[in-house]
Amino acid sequence: MTSIKVPPLGESIVEATVSKWLKSEGDAVAPGDTLVELETDKITVEVPSVTGGVLKKRFAKEGDIVKLDQQLADVDETASGGNKADGAQRTAEAAKAPAAPKPAPANVAVPQREAPRASPAAQRTAAESGANLANVQGTGRGGVVSKADVLESRQPGAATPPAPVSVVRPQPPSVAAAASGERETREKMTTRRKRIAEHLLESQHATAHLTTFNEIDMAAVEAIRGRVKEKIEKEHGVRLSFMPFFVKAACMALKQFPVVNAQIDGDSIVYRHYVNMGIAVASEAGLVVPNVKDADRMGMLDIARSITDIAKRARDGKLTMDDLSGGTFTITNGGVFGSLISTPIINFPQVGILGLHKIQERPMVVAGKIEVRPMMYVALSYDHRIIDGQQAVLFLVRVKELMEDPALLAID
Fold first, then answer.
1. Mean per-residue pLDDT of the chain
2. For this structure, is 388 an active site residue?
3. Range 210-410 has CATH code 3.40.50.620
């Protein structure tokens, strides 16, 4: 009998919620098969079986809170699957049987390789998206295809799968209940949502929270981006958004006002002479803030690549704890959802966060004339315990200057 326990979950994380069991008691399992998904406040962890056999007993139910190294299940290596079909045994028997001749499929030039072993989550994702598991390279233990591998295969440049099928995705319980006429529903908060709530309250209670605002004329950046984005995407495979410009501008402003990149440690102020730039990403599981390490040492294209990479891995559930730790300053962009102005909450224990918003054409006075310009409101929330109002305002003014004259971004 092999015990399956809660694996290491990452720095400072000691508990998780049992999100979903993918195997039932009596099911046959192979080495590397995902037994259960655990949800922490930051990432989702798939717990695989380290051996083949039969899942004899589950020691936790979905929704239970489990601690580090707590026993989750027992796998019997000597059992053959009880009254449930043993997938591995069926596969072995099928291999011994003579293969029936298969008609050649029409319009196919290259024969497809046999589909590899895949986790249940990967199988569900493949069925929903129309992905062909035979075209997916598994990165799990023993070559097992994970959900993230299927999502990766759906990206541009990956092997072309069959045309996607129409899938009706299940609605959230609250939406489904409202549609059925129920007046109210109750849903248990996930571990991640609870931790997000605790973290935001901690930020509000532990800091002297204040926000200052400004507005940026985005015409110059829009002009540069419009001239070069197609060329950059063609030559470097990078989609140039506005975020790399803001990251570069913020890094340069942080060098001029290092207290905005600092941290309070007891009665000391710790100044960081590097910038690990946090980028707030909204995923299905909740808000996460992965960070681009040493962003102040990167050029614009490297920043763009890094942002694209961490945002994609955040949405695919492939972030590591290293991605989520060590940030020194954060940028959040509510403008992608249509927000015109907001007051972002500091990502504690950082002391500053820059909020970006929707670009909106507005009449502005330019050289004594009224012109229609693409304007964006920006907000800097800061910890007034160590950042004075003057420093906060001047930091935001510096970001504005750099964005309105982006040639300055090349002069560091």
1. 82
2. yes
3. no
